[in-house]
Amino acid sequence: QVQLVESGGGLVQAGGSLRLSCAASGRTFSNYGMGWVRQAPGKEREFVASITWSGSGTYYADSVKGRFTISRDNAKNTVYLQMNSLKPEDTATYSCASGRRSLAIQLPDFGSWGQGTPVTVSS
Prior knowledge:
This protein is mostly beta strands. It has no helices and 11 strands.
């Protein structure tokens, strides 16, 4: 019921930056947060970041703290993920996720995910 369409992925060299966007539509609930997850080749999908509806609260995986910043523009129904100081280990398909709690801190806290946009970081 929720459509999430990601964009902004691509190929970038280590140390570079990318800004991912997620356009949400359909049955979304304003009282729940949003976030990002990723799945690297050969690895399980993992939690990346989340944000409350108001944007006042955020939560990041330890692996991306200090490098990634999640934000949202509720007027545009869009969530962003600014990724700086990218590392080869950040290579993954990044998916936008709609939360089922006020602030998601783990994968089960998300109710739906998009198909994702691939990010490749070369060394």
